[in-house]
Specification:
Distance between the termini: 98 Å
Structural class: mainly beta
Number of helices: 0
Strand order of the largest sheet: 2-9-8-5-6
Order of helices and strands: EEEEEEEEEEEEEEEEE
Helix content: under 10%
Number of strands: 17
């Protein structure tokens, strides 16, 4: 039995492909399967490994070849796959109802197994604090991206859309001067962007 692994270490999820170079001298055909360190059998030529334990895992592999005549050959290799742990990025923010009148947002890290953090707030600004506060200047939808990294160099990301709604800060002028000088010629009420109904009385 002879096989190799082009990639035998890395961050979870770790895709591992087995390169089989076994030669059957008898000319028989054969089937093979792999037994992982946890006792699971697989018959594919590749598998995806996951590790969320926050520590490095080394998985021994056992290759089992069975010819069409029933002959069996086994090869055991210790610690063939070294899998580094994967952090799990997650975050929340408060408040959920955000307006331009109250534009301060608190972002909170809910990750597991992370040692470093980074934020991209969707308006061109970034931050590397773990639980930052962010002030949005304008109404709109902002795609917030959050990344985490652990001491093994493994990275995970999460994202969410933060919506900042326009606030109704009402301003009603008490006078105007329609003399066509280009200054204060029109009577305009401000802060009605989201109003559904407006009543105005002039005395």
């Amino acid at each position: 039995i002879k096989f190799g692994l082009p990639i035998d270490s890395g961050c979870s999820p770790l895709p591992v492909m087995y390169l089989d170079s076994t030669v059957m001298l008898s000319g028989d055909t054969y089937n093979y399967k792999w037994r992982l360190g946890d006792g699971e059998f697989i018959e594919e030529d590749s598998i995806q490994f996951y590790n969320y334990t926050e520590k490095i895992i080394q998985l021994p592999l056992e290759a089992i070849y069975v010819s069409d005549r029933g002959c069996e050959s086994v090869l055991m290799l210790d610690s063939m796959v070294e899998m580094r742990p994967q952090p799990m990025a997650a975050f929340d923010y408060s408040p959920k109802e955000i307006t331009t009148l109250s534009p301060l947002v608190h972002f909170m890290d809910n990750s597991r197994g992370a040692n470093y953090w980074g934020w991209v707030f969707g308006d061109g600004t970034t931050e590397k604090e773990r639980n930052p506060y962010k002030m949005y200047d304008e109404a709109g939808e902002y795609q917030v991206s959050f990344w985490t990294r652990n001491i093994f160099g493994c990275v995970d990301t999460a994202s969410a859309t933060v919506i900042v709604n326009p606030g109704n800060r009402l301003f009603v002028p008490n006078s105007f001067s329609p003399n066509q000088d280009g200054l204060n010629d029109e009577f305009t009420i401000y802060g009605l962007e989201t109003a559904l109904e407006v009543k105005l009385r002039v005395f």
